[in-house]
Task: inverse folding
């Protein structure tokens, strides 16, 4: 009987490790605590790994785990063993869990099979969360910010690294200490130190080629322990036994101190810390099959010349940003911002954009929302209605490209096989979409992805501006069936005369919420689909591993196009014939320009004649539509780029910025709608929750408490609206107070009665003698 993956390795102590068939770590758990930060996958592995390095004129490295390893893997309930050979170094790496304690060991045996002495060392990279699974999946950046990293020095094992979760988990502070079974000589505490920004362009992680890791504590947003072992010299035909250990404590009430070196001693006295007898395991003759994401390269995008930039984007370049090696970014045309590859490799926060369909200034459940990233993620966290729960495509969870197989990605078939479109030569952003330009040795590719303002549809166009027609493979990581696409649940899809219909499984959260719900992907006129399948089209051997991917392969063409529509909340857009997208692009550009011009009002900023502030005023004028765009997203599709959970209104937030913006634009009706929704969320005692969901479908999702000043802001927002609009009739509107069982059980009252109850709460909270 074949094994079911991921395979669970468990110890009597309660420590469990899930391992994929490709030899990568999916997750490590101790009871209700997840130790690692990012989930590994069958498609591309994960960040937890051991790297073997050989020091010659330069440093070369290879991973020992995952689909990029030269190893053959054996997995069973007792452990993981990886065996292989690389650059005349034969290796065996084994994961061993301690029976009597929550501890784990990586035992690595190396043998020099070459004719010359080799200097080698090992690096152990382990991403760390030490938090509840639900907390980690809500936002890895947030969890990382609370992980404390403390290096300690052990007299025999050298530097070790202790990590403590300072955010209480059920009243506990999970803690771990990780070190070398030989002698640790250096460390890193964040993936930013280990990977660096150049990995965005497909370069090797900086930590792999550095003589020494930085040995500096960096508290950032990709918590990772990276331990560097002391180098060893292996003469021909000699062997070395190396490795690493980890010890976990469910609760460490106090901060890390030198006294915690006692846990190192405890770990090293465990029987599993000694050289283990070699396990006699059967291994197949070939490593597990690779995928396009693990085996195929990224397209190397080339820099554009000044003449090419002018030809592509026009010569009207405003607020130009330059460096010594050339152009970085500029504004051009109407509401267009262009960023060059060289800038993306310089900035910590990568360039990305959130777009939303439609032009209405009130919440619209049929609206689609998508996040686009300069690094070739053309749509991600694509949702309809609730912008966090109702996910169609998965989320980009790292701005360091730690994982690349999320959302919608595109491979282009060139003469030597598929290459991944990732970091482009240039990226253009407009309020409703993005464009990517890929210049490469044999051609020029343009990709455009945008949200329609006329209908609830997202469009994608790919054009070969130069070079031969190409076949494309579009990969979609489907999140419909829960946990942002983390589980091995095959995609349920079917083809019809128009395109592809994708449905959630009935037992998923989205399936329960929308039993007849679906999404569609329809090819545009002239686009031919040669194959439509699941994850099997991503695996080199063509066999499915039940991963949640929808894959489309087009015929060779110079231009292809697609439309995505949502059927969780059905609209007429789903049944429309896909139009000529070239005409749609032109029409949409005009609509978008008019809409965003209206969103900045009649305001034009002009500096005084000959004023030295002229440049500052012009920059502020350039930014106005982008401020308006950000405000609209915060109001109608409340989520962020790194804070990707959301979907509700902060009571204080929505009654401040959105109200003031809409009032400044003279948009009375949207403010009236907003206020009615806010007062419908008011508690019967007159107070409000800190935040609440503004669609009726999610009305039950809300906290039970709020900060003391929350009650003030809905009253103030109503007063501002009445002064501006003189619409006193709003006070006579009858709206219910919140009731958990629905409006039929709620107490109805006029808006004025709601205000009186809120004023009573405010009066009761005033400290005597302070007003």
Result:
């Amino acid at each position: 009987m074949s094994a079911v993956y991921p395979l669970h390795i468990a110890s009597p102590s309660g420590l469990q490790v899930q391992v994929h068939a490709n030899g990568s770590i999916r997750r490590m758990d101790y009871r209700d605590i997840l130790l690692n930060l990012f989930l590994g996958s069958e498609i591309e592995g994960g960040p937890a790994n051991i790297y073997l390095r050989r020091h010659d004129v330069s440093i070369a490295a290879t991973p020992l785990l995952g689909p990029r390893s030269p190893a053959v893997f054996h997995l069973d309930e007792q452990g993981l063993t990886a065996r292989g050979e690389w650059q005349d170094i034969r290796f065996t790496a084994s994961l061993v869990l301690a029976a009597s304690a929550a501890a784990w060991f990586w035992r690595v045996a190396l043998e020099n099979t070459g004719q010359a002495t080799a200097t080698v060392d090992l690096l152990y990279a382990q991403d760390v969360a030490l938090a509840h699974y639900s907390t980690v999946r809500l936002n890895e950046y947030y969890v990382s910010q609370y992980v404390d990293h403390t290096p300690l020095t052990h007299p025999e094992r050298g530097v070790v690294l202790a990590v403590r979760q300072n955010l209480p988990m059920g009243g506990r502070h999970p803690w771990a200490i990780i070190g070398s079974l030989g002698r640790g000589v250096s460390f890193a505490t964040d993936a930013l130190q280990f990977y660096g920004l150049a990995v965005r362009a497909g370069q090797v992680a900086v930590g792999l080629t550095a003589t020494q890791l930085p040995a500096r504590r960096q508290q950032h947003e990709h918590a990772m322990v990276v331990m560097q072992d002391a180098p060893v010299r292996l003469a021909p035909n000699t062997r070395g036994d190396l490795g690493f250990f980890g010890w976990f404590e469910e609760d460490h009430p106090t901060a890390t101190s030198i006294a915690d070196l006692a846990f190192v001693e405890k770990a090293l006295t465990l029987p599993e810390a000694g050289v283990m007898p070699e396990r006699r395991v059967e291994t197949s003759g070939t490593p597990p099959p690779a995928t396009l994401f693990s085996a195929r390269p990224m397209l190397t995008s080339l820099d554009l010349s000044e003449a090419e930039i002018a030809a592509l984007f026009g010569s009207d370049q405003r607020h130009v940003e330059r460096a010594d090696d050339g152009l970085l970014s500029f504004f051009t045309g109407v509401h267009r911002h262009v960023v060059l590859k060289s800038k993306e490799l310089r900035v910590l926060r990568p360039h990305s954009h959130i777009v939303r369909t439609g032009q209405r200034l009130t919440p619209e459940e049929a609206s689609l929302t998508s996040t686009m990233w300069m690094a070739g993620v053309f749509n991600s966290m694509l949702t309809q209605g609730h912008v966090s729960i109702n996910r169609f495509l998965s989320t980009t969870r790292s701005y360091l490209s730690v994982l690349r197989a999320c959302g919608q990605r595109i491979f282009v078939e060139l003469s030597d096989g598929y290459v991944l479109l990732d970091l482009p030569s240039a990226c253009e952003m407009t309020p409703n979409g993005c464009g990517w330009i890929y210049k490469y040795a044999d051609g020029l590719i343009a990709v455009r992805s945008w949200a329609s303002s006329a209908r609830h549809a997202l469009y994608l166009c790919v054009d070969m501006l130069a070079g031969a027609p190409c076949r494309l493979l579009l990969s979609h990581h489907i999140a419909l069936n829960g946990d942002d696409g983390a589980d091995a649940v095959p995609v349920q899809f079917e083809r019809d005369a128009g395109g592809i219909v994708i449905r959630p499984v009935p037992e998923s959260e989205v399936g329960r919420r929308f039993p007849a719900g679906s999404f569609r992907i329809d090819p545009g006129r002239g686009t031919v689909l040669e194959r439509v399948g699941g994850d099997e089209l991503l695996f080199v051997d063509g066999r499915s591993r039940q991963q949640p991917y929808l894959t489309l392969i087009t015929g060779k063409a110079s231009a292809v196009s697609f439309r995505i529509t949502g059927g969780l909340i059905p609209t007429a857009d789903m049944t429309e014939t896909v139009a000529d997208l070239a005409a749609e692009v032109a029409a949409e550009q005009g609509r978008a320009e008019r809409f965003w011009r209206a969103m900045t009002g009649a305001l034009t900023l002009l500096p005084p004649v000959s004023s030295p502030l002229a440049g500052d005023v012009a920059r502020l004028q350039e930014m106005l539509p982008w401020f308006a765009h950000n405000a609209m997203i915060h109001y109608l599709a409340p989520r962020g780029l790194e804070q990707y959970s959301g979907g509700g209104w902060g009571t204080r937030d929505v009654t401040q910025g959105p109200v003031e913006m809409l009032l400044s634009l003279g948009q009375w009706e949207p403010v009236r709608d907003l206020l009615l929704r806010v007062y419908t969320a008011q508690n019967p005692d007159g107070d409000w929750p800190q935040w609440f969901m503004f669609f009726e479908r999610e009305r039950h999702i809300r906290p039970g408490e709020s900060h003391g000043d929350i009650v003030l802001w809905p009253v103030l927002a109503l007063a501002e609206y009445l002064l501006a609009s003189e619409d006193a009739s709003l006070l006579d509107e009858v709206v219910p107070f919140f009731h958990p069982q629905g409006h039929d059980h709620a107490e109805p009252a006029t808006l004025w009665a709601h205000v009186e109850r809120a004023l009573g709460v405010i009066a009761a909270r005033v400290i005597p003698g302070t007003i």
